[in-house]
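User: Can you predict the 3D structure for this chain?
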Amino acid sequence: MIDPLLLLRTGDRLAFDPELLKCTFKTRHGTVPLDSKQLLEVRLHQGGHGVHRAVFLNGSKLAGLLGPEQIILPLKLGPKLNISRDMVLGIRFAAETKEDPDLACARLSNEDELFGRLSDEAYVVVTDFGTVNVKPKNVAAMSFDEADPTRIAITLWDGSTLRGHIQQEALHFEIEPGPVLDLHVGQIVGLTSPRALPPDDVVKRVEKYVAMLSAASYQDREEAQRLLVEMGGKIVPLLKKYLTDADPEIRQRITVILERIGSEAPGGSAGNPLPAAFGQPGGKVGLLMR
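Assistant: Here is the predicted structure, written as structure tokens:
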């Protein structure tokens, strides 16, 4: 733990009470409040340009402009100082980041990198074969066409690729922990999500078979194990949470199942790579299943 510090261009460091510091952050996604509990630091003077960057505890980096111009700084010892923003080099809130490898990552054209989750209910994508509704929790990756940002390639939980025109102008993305941002599709370079989940019907089947792993009948337990193995690597993210189940029979059989089907990410690779870039041969908009 460290005391939150405001660093001045003079080299002075001022310890302050983060609960009483009130600042906002004007970004191209709108003005967002800054919560000291969610932040690592705010960097102000970078390379001579006027862009500031808020760095969140989960490693997210968000460009913007810190406000207000006159910062009322509540010192840790009690009194308050009125400090010009132009005198501030940076504000440090915590000692280190707390990164979560399970969070989705959105990469933006201004080099911002955000970690969290898509918070929309669904996306409407028009393909050559019809209109499809896509739920964010089933998305492993997205990439956008630079010439036409509405053209999108979506890699789904099972490795299949959906290509078409997305009807939403902006995607809602929640930094965890942090604010919800409206990301215009023209600002997004790509998105990856290491914890893409299968549809609800597949989840229910997995839950049913896992419950059978502790059935009284040995034959039922063996059958449930066989069915889960047959479902393959696409259900690995769903199975891993049962490695700490209270029932030792379930824990043991889940371990065996994972060993048999392998613990690779859906699609056979770790990290859910982006779909093939637009403009490559064979890049026709449509629905491609592999």
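Residues 218-231 form the longest helix (14 residues). Residues 151 and 165 are 4 Å apart (CA to CA).
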